[in-house]
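Comment thread on ticket #2218

A.B. wrote:
> Attaching the input chain for the structure job we discussed in standup.
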Amino acid sequence: MSRHFASLLAIAVVAITLTPGAASAAPKEKEVDCTQVKCIALTFDDGPGKYAGELLDTLKKHNAKATFFLEGQYVKSRPAFAKRMAVEGHELGNHSYSHPNFTTIGPAAIRSEIQKTQDIVKQVTGVEPKLLRPPYGMADLQVSDIAAEFGMPMILWTGGSRDWESKNEEAIKKQTLAVAKQGSIVLMHDWVKQTVDSMPSLIKTLQNKGYHLVTVSELIKDQKLEPGDIFPVPEGWEK
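C.D. wrote:
> Ran it. Output below, let me know if you need it in another format.
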């Protein structure tokens, strides 16, 4: 399986909180009420990628927020980007340390992958991730039980940009707009240069269509997710 193959399990989220030490770094902004206005959440996996700085510049310019599902190994190698994500009010989630398929490794290895990422994100940013996106979107009951041990729901997506596949700016914009609906959570990657290059035009188009670009926690804040939940529940999932 390709390292960046998006599972068809699809979908969504939960919040992240700042520790007291980090709270003063991110300015308090008025939350968007997604029950009253159109909202969409752009999510970026596998980062911080090497183009994350340019992406953050674009998000800041357009007053847009995103959720970053980070790999611990890249937080370690690109700490400045991870810290900036937190300072600028974006949401940080856990996407493992080195991106193995959790359904093919043992429980000790899964715990290590999650814990190492929790530790390095907290060390670098002052933020403790509160949501888990399993690599490839792959999860089973064992993964659910371990996520529950960490107090984390599992978060997938409603649609993907397929940027890892096309690596084409126009195709990325077209696919993202095709899956963009009220309440959508879109899977993207900040290591794909064409994704980052497409963002100024894409954000402008989404905002012109009336969308507010928010974090996933803002998008689904009325949901009552429990640790170990997967949201929404994929077809055939039993817990």
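A.B. wrote:
> Thanks. Noting for the ticket: The chain has one domain: 34-231.
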